[in-house]
Design brief:
- With 161 residues, the chain is α+β, with helices and mostly antiparallel strands.
- It folds into two domains: 87 residues, Jelly Rolls (Sandwich); 48 residues.
- Strands 1, 2, 3, 4, 5 and 6 form a six-stranded antiparallel sheet that branches.
- The longest helix has 29 residues.
- 22% of the residues are buried.
Length: 161
C-alpha cells in the first residue's frame, strides 16, 4: 500500500509553531490534515489525552466524515508541517488509496480504544455502585449506532438524500 504521504505530495502545506492550534474543539468541519513532520497534542475540554508524531497521521477526518463539529483540539507541541486537503470529502472520494490509508489510521485508533475499553469493562465488571455503572455506560457507547452513511459525491449526490 502506498503511504498517505506519498499520495498527498501535491497538496499545499501549512506550518505550525509550538502551541499553535490546528483544529479547535467545537469548530465546524474544515480541511483534512496529514502530518509531514512534528508533533501535535490532542485535547478534549482542555485535557491533553494523546500525542501524535507519526508522519502520515490524519487530523480532521472525523468531523469531515461525520459532518459534525470537531470533537477535540489538535495543538502543535513542537514546530510541525502538515499537508492540507481543503475539501476532505472530495479528497477521500477522488483518491481511493488515500481514503484507504486514512481508514486504516482511523481503524487502528478505534481498535486501540476498543482494547482499552474492554480492559476497563473487565476491571469494573464485578463492582457495584457508581463504578459498577462503568459496564452499562460502555455498553451504551459501544452499541450506539450512527445515522446512515450517505453515498455519492459532490458531483453525483445520492438521490435519496
Amino acid at each position: 500500500m502506498e503511504s498517505l504521504l506519498a499520495l498527498t505530495e501535491d497538496l499545499p502545506m501549512v506550518t505550525l509553531g509550538a502551541g499553535d492550534v490546528l483544529i479547535e474543539q467545537g469548530a465546524d468541519p474544515g480541511p483534512l490534515y496529514i502530518l509531514v513532520s512534528g508533533a501535535l497534542t490532542i485535547e478534549h475540554g482542555g485535557v491533553p489525552f494523546a500525542s501524535v508524531d507519526t508522519p502520515g497521521a490524519v487530523f480532521g477526518e472525523m468531523a469531515a466524515v461525520l459532518e459534525q463539529s470537531a470533537t477535540a483540539t489538535a495543538r502543535a507541541s513542537e514546530p510541525s508541517i502538515l499537508r492540507v486537503a481543503e475539501d476532505p470529502i472530495a479528497f477521500l472520494t477522488e483518491r481511493p488509496g488515500a481514503a484507504l490509508a486514512a481508514l486504516r489510521t482511523a481503524s487502528s485508533r478505534l481498535d486501540n480504544l476498543t482494547r482499552y475499553l474492554t480492559d476497563v469493562k473487565r476491571q469494573y465488571a464485578e463492582l457495584t455502585g457508581h463504578l459498577g455503572m462503568v459496564d452499562d455506560v460502555l455498553n451504551v457507547l459501544v452499541h450506539h449506532q450512527p445515522s446512515p452513511a450517505r453515498t455519492g459525491s459532490a458531483r453525483e449526490p445520492d438521490p435519496e438524500y
